[in-house]
Amino acid sequence: MDKPKVAVLSGFGINCETETITAFEMAGAMAKKTHVNRLVNGDLELSEFDIVAVPGGFSFGDHLGSGRLLGNRLRFSLREEVRAFVASKKPVIGICNGFQVLVKMGLLPGDEDLSMCQTASLAANDCGRYEDRWVTLEFDRNSPCIWTRGIERLRVPVRHGEGKFVTNDQNLMDKWAKKGQLVARYVDPDSKYPSSSDEILPFPISPNQSWRNVAGVCDPTGLVFGLMPHPEAYHSTWLSPDWTRETSLKHGPSPAMAIFRNAVDHSRRN
Amino acid sequence: MGVQHSIACMAHDNPRILRVDVLPIPGSGLVDSRANALINSLPKPLAGQIAATRTSLGYTIKGDFTEEEATHAATNLFSDPIIETFTIDGSIGAGQLPDGDYSDLTVQVGFKPGVTDNRAMAAEDGLGTIFPNKSNKVASTISYHFWLHNDHLELDELVNQLHNPMLEEYSILDGQNRIPNLIRFPNLKQQNYVEPKIVNLNVGDRELERISEDGLLALNLVEMKAIQGYFKQQDTQEIRSQYDLPADSPTDVELECLAQTWSEHCSHKIFSAKIQHTDNEDGTTSTIDSLFKTHIVAPTIAISKEVDWLLSVFHDNSGVIAWTDEWSLCMKAETHNSPSALDPFGGAMTGIVGVNRDILGTGLGAKPIANTDVFCFGPPDYSGTLPKGLFHPSRIFSGVHSGVRAGGNESGIPTVNGSIVFDDRYIGKPLVYCGTVGLMPRYLPDGRESHVKTPKPGDLIYMVGGRVGSDGIHGATFSSLELTEDSPSSAVQIGDPITQKKMLDMILEARDAGLIQVITDNGAGGLSSSVGEMAELTGGATIDLGVVPLKQLGLKSWEILVSESQERMTVGIRGEDSDEFERLARLHEVEATAIGTFSDTGFFQVNHNEKCVGLIPIAFLHEGCPQMQLESEWNPPTNPDVVLPIPTLGSLSGALEKILTRPNIASKEWWVRSYDHEVIAQTVIKPFVGLNHDAPGDAAVIAPLPGSTTGAVISNGIVPRYSDIDAYSMTAAAIDEAVRNAVCVGVDLSMIAGLDNFCWPDPIESEKTPDGKQKLAQLVRSNQALDDVCRAYTLPCISGKDSMKNDAVIDGQKISVPPTLLFSLIGRHKDITKAVTSDFKDYDDHIYLLGLTKQEIGASELAFMLRDSDNSSGIGTSVPILDPERNIALYRALTNAMEDNMVRSAHDCSDGGLSVSLAESCFGFSGGANIDVSEILLSDDELDEWGALFGESLGRIIVSVSPENATEFEKKMEGHAVYKLGKTTSSGKVMISAHGKTILKCDVDSLKAAWKGTLDRGA
Questions:
Q1: Which residue segments constitute the domains of chain A, with CATH numbers given?
Q2: Which residues does chain B have within 8 Å of residue A166's beta carbon, measured at their own beta carbons?
Q3: Which residues, listed in sequence order, are joined to residue A121 by a DSSP beta bridge?
């Protein structure tokens, strides 16, 4: 395969589709803006694509909980198509609102049976408000996640009001941790790799007081991945918040592009 | 007490009403952050009486749902199974928690009928997904459950904090009173359609004035007589008879249409007026035939002969410039002052989503890519008495901020730049400026230039997006009047960003498919304005109000025509494209309805079903309004001098520490962080910069084309303080500030364009405004400055706006805003990888001050600070004087040096002067600065330490340059005012010396803490 085809979902208040398309195209894919209704009405088939991305945004204004309504649209109107796509071992990513959608659909953290039952949630940030600020993420090197392979740390922006990863069953947290599903965590940038901890880090190192500092999770296969921060917002070096302070910066694609290249390479190989 | 209705009464209008209440599950590592945020926002004494708070969200659902279906919906839609719990018709709504504990007090708040309820609309959509074949109607409520320390609670004050009586109702549950459905379902009253009324204008002058006043038409006698005169003409009467219209009198539809089109808001009558201007300072008199044509259009036309990038100026919804060969940029700034005074959240939100539509309605449709917002409020810590009917400035501040945050973030448009100004006189009316930048391809795939509208007679007129309701009637005429206790609540609306986002996605697809011939937004004046304006392009239009989709039945014809219900565009489509256009609308779940056709009959014809209810000649509609004749008289004000303390190490250092805490200068980071400033992944220079991303940026730089380093710069300038001495200086300073900020990041000065946005107190002399001539003279002087400075800077204005009635009369007390100009700038950046930020980069870099410093402390932040603590000190008279020719030469030299990578940091010297700017540049790195200002003091005989450190002379920038580039930099800047002051240090101190003595010494960390503390509301 030359260029993997990426369905970048759009519509209903999704608003990061432009930069998500840019990131995938810079990584060597062919990305197509895909209105959810084009999949529902049969204009397009999910199975035509190699990768699916649910971008960030404010689908349906987040009014009944972030990601709830778009999650329901996918869960009730495209259930079998979504299951078949995931079952066929093709990569899926949800970013910010897209992550919230995947969690509320039950695809993340998910289970082996693809039962699509919600087991975790993203609650309101402890600070009680939406914030846009840059954080540092650390990735679990033992995770099966194909998206984060070979990446130790990344600086990326968070832009959300509801990003506190929680569940109602502590045993599940242990299970996910053991399987490497708690793949992305907020970390103190001044610490040495690896140093992610279960102790909740202070604000703003952890912008939302997520349990165990979780910023992103994958499903048991490592193919479905979601995270609150926005790697696509940092596709080029000049989008970092302090690049003017660097003296010998070579401008071009940023370190965050590794996430998108990982998935594109995976699709090319499989 | 709230409105109390029993359940039985509610059940009467529908057999099946369900109520779902959703509560965050307490404990286990979860917090009710909504409750915490509420307590954080309450005034301290009130919050202190509350021991604990919980919140729950309620949904009242009308529809034929079984118990089982309701549980299904509550589980899968209304609540989150992991973090929330719910009851159906149960205890949570009554203030009883799952563990059985009752609140001491529960306050339930819901919307009044007809108010946009976004959460309910989302719920209706969500129910449609789960039960596609069932119709439903939802209303949302929020319940605040309180546990109190004692029973001394100020209940009225608490309730006032929890709701806005203009839009919301509340009920109280306490003691035994635990009926959860106290808030009635917001049913709109059933209305029956009433035929248009005929308004008899064959009456005397006083009666004409009464008709205007009673009908909120905001037309003066001369204008009413012009309308009267039109209907007396014989040919008018002949044509009207053919259409079965009353021959010699307008219908209410026609009168309303004329009032909207001729409103100050829509037709800018004061800027078009003929003004007899007397200047008592130099003893001259002059006549100005339209300030707009004389001082705003004329310079732009003159500049258009020098530059080749002006594509569309003044006539469209925003001004358009040719940014690259393939792409153009457009920009527009609007104000939403009156609505924001009445409902800060809704008013500000409709302000931002409204100006987004101006961009979408430019040319054949542009994509909004960046927002800016500038607010003027009363002081957040205001402790004086407030006239009845006004919100406290801090509540306006947080409401406006929330509205702009929700509107911008939910629309996916980054808020990249802004400013907040505080002054006592904004207590009466806050100023809420919302600006948006748009991007569009220069040419569409079908070859048409996208900034040119191409309608033809016969094209269909579509209304797209939201429906028409009674909300938003009379916004245009209302904003042309002063604010009073009787201001109509119908003029206030809450925006619906998601409906608008769906429409925006759809319109841009339609544009690229070549379907759009003409487009404009429905803002002030509604369909009357949007269709009326576009009809000018073809020479006529006919619409049928009977097919316009309505939120509620029974609206009168005139109401449908002028309603300003949000989220609507009016679009012209060729007949053969209508199927494709409607298919796109269905795909995006956007309502699009053909409501008429463009024509070349010369008339704007309004039908309601088969009946013609209005027929107005296009020419009379747009050119019939008589020119106002006004008088202005300039008398320079006298202000007591500034009483300056003796300049010592202690007084100067103390002044810096203190001035940094003043709200005008203090960090706004806490507020700005909650705007999404980097969605679309293009924001190269963000609002906050430096090592820890918390030092102030000067201007936004964006790179909107993926992979391309061609950028755009967006900046703002606003200095209303200076109007207290001279509005000419105020205006010159605002423009220079916008330019200077843009220069600091490295703008390409060969492509900068401006937007003028005037917010003035009523400048027409009358019984209510005895000082109207002076206020108009200030407007004249402001325009003269705009003319002079824009020409000198080769800075054409491409769009603008004015809001001329920023007065509030409450309790018989009149509060007028200071004359205020916001100047917004958009410019090109040739290579964004060479952009410069304000933060010092390294130790031992050289620090330079560029530009001349004079003893200019009149109306400075320092002057106001001294006056606030010492009544005998005035604001003085030495307001900064601009020398634009000298400045632009220096700015050009500096941007050239930036292109050669010579400059490591650049920061604008403005509010608070050199010492504040120096401190702010230190905030962005881990060190300090050590400078000597002797050379500056020697450069001007009158200058003293106060003037050197805190004076606000214009045209000044602090830059840092690495030692290896210093010589080369100085060579490049030869011939300009350049002062080498000292170096950056690793000491963590700001040290300023003069003539061998240390005159200021402060610790950077404590300065920064002071600067960040004032407006920080904590995590």
A1: 5-269 (3.40.50.880)
A2: 29-30, 82-83
A3: A166
Structure tokens at B657: 């520490």
B851 at interface of A, judged by CB pairs closer than 8 A:
no
How many residues are there in chain A? 270
Q: Is B405 on the interface with A (CB under 8 A)?
A: yes
Q: Is residue B341 part of a domain?
A: no
Angle between helices B393-411 and B497-512 (to 10 degrees): 40
d(CA B781, CA B860): 20
How close A41 gets to chain B, by Cα (Å)?
9
Q: Are residues B459 and B606 in the same domain?
A: yes
Cβ contact B691–A72 (<8 Å):
no
Beta bridge partners of residue B689, listed in sequence order: B695
Would you call B409 and A16 a contact, using CB atoms and an 8 Å cutoff? no
Residue B265's pLDDT band (cuts 50, 70, 90): confident
The answer to whether B1012 contacts chain A (CB < 8 Å) is no
Tell which B residues from 490 to 509 touch A, by Cβ distance under 8 Å.
497-498, 501-502, 505
Type of residue at B749: L
| Overall size of chain B counted in residues | 1019
Q: Provide, as residue numbers in chain A, all residues whose Cβ is less than 8 Å from the Cβ of B76.
A: 72
Give the Cα separation of B790 and B295 in Å (integer): 10
Average model confidence (pLDDT) for chain A? 96
Domain shared by B508 and B550, yes or no? yes
Same-domain pairing of B857 and B944: yes
CB contact under 8 A, B691 and A242: yes
Q: Please indicate, yes or no, whether residues B468 and B604 belong to a single structural domain of this protein.
A: yes
Looking at the partner chain, which of B498, B587, B684 has a beta carbon nearest the beta carbon of A13? B498
Q: Give the distance, in angstroms, between the CA of residue A88 and the centroid of all CA atoms in the same chain.
A: 19
Asked if residues B737 and B909 have their Cβ atoms less than 8 Å apart, the reply is no
Q: How many helices (H) and strands (E) does chain A have?
A: 7, 11
Per the structure, how many domains does chain B have?
3
The last residue of one of the domains, among B174, B191, B211, is: B174
The pair of structure tokens assigned to B590 is 């956007």
B971 and B889 fall within a common domain: yes
> Nearest to residue B929, comparing CAs of B974, B985, B992?
B985
Could you report the per-residue pLDDT of B600-651, keeping only the tens digit for each? 999 999 999 999 999 999 999 999 999 999 999 999 999 999 999 999 999 9
Catalytic: A162? Answer: no
Which chain A residues are Cβ-neighbours of B693 within 8 angstroms? Answer: 133-134, 241-242
Amino acid at B511: R
Q: Do A242 and B411 touch (CB under 8 A)?
A: no
Instruction: Return the CATH number at B79.
Output: 3.30.1280.10
Question: Among this protein's residues, is A48 annotated catalytic?
Answer: no
In the DSSP assignment, the letter for residue B491 is: G
User: Could you tell me if B888 and B978 lie in one domain?
Assistant: yes
| Cα A151 to Cα A237: distance, rounded to the nearest angstrom | 17
Q: Does A185 touch chain B (CB under 8 A)?
A: no
Q: Give the whole-angstrom CA distance, residue B383 versus residue B392.
A: 9
Q: What angle do CA B74, B77, B81 make, to 5 degrees?
A: 70
Tell me phi and psi for residue A93, to 5 degrees: -130, 140
Interface of B with A in 583-602 (CB under 8 A): 587-589
Q: Is the residue at B466 inside a domain?
A: yes
Mean pLDDT for the stretch of residues B212-234:
92
B925, B829 Cβ separation under 8 angstroms: no
- Which is nearest to B567 in space by CA: B518, B476, B506? B506
Tens-place pLDDT, residues B344-375: 999 999 999 999 999 999 999 999 999 999 99
Residues B214 and B132 in one domain: no
In a domain, B421, yes or no: no
DSSP bridge pairs for A159: A132
- Domain CATH code at residue B243: 3.90.650.10
Determine whether A230 is an active site residue: yes
